[in-house]
Amino acid sequence: MDQTNAQLTERIRQLEEENAYLKALVQSQNREILRLKSDNPRGAGRKPADAKWIANFSEFLRLKEAGCDRNEIMAELQISRATFYRYQKLFNETNWKANSGSQDINLEDFL
User: Fold this and answer.
1) For residue 101, what pLDDT is reported?
2) Measured between alpha carbons, how far is 13 from 19 in angstroms, rounded to an integer?
3) What is the per-residue pLDDT across 84-106, written as a single tens digit (0 to 9) for each?
4) Dihedral pair phi/psi, residue 96, rounded to 5°
5) How far apart are CA 62 and CA 68, in angstroms?
């Protein structure tokens, strides 16, 4: 009976080692799956709006409401034509009015 207990104890130890190895393997496989399944693993593309973008768009709104034309706004903000039209599209979509002038508007609500 002692031999059977010793054999069973050894087998339990072996199984515990194998279990620990398999758990580590599964965990690393799960990390790899999550990495591969992410929508954008390299982080490419346009970044979400940050404080700098919001400040720049707020300045765009001020200039737009002041009646500046496209070239004046592009020169003042040092933005490309594509950026100007992206801002213009957002301006049109959010129904900004020249007389709104409200400082309580949260731009992040429109992004």
Assistant:
1) 55
2) 10
3) 999 999 888 876 554 455 555 55
4) -65, 140
5) 9
Is the CB of residue 68 less than 8 Å from the CB of residue 77? no
Retrieve residue 75's tokens: 């020169």
Euclidean distance between CA atoms 77 and 56, whole angstroms: 7
3-state SS, one letter per residue, for 64-80: HHCCCCHHHHHHHHCCC
CA 41, CA 32: separation in Å to the nearest integer?
A: 11
- The answer for residues whose C-beta is within 8 angstroms of residue 108's C-beta and 6 or more apart is 49, 54
Mean per-residue pLDDT of the chain? 83
Q: Is the pTM of this model over 0.85?
A: no
| Two tokens, residue 26 | 């599964």
pLDDT tens-digit profile of 17-37?
999 999 999 999 998 888 777
**Do 101 and 65 meet the contact criterion of CB atoms below 8 Å apart?**
yes
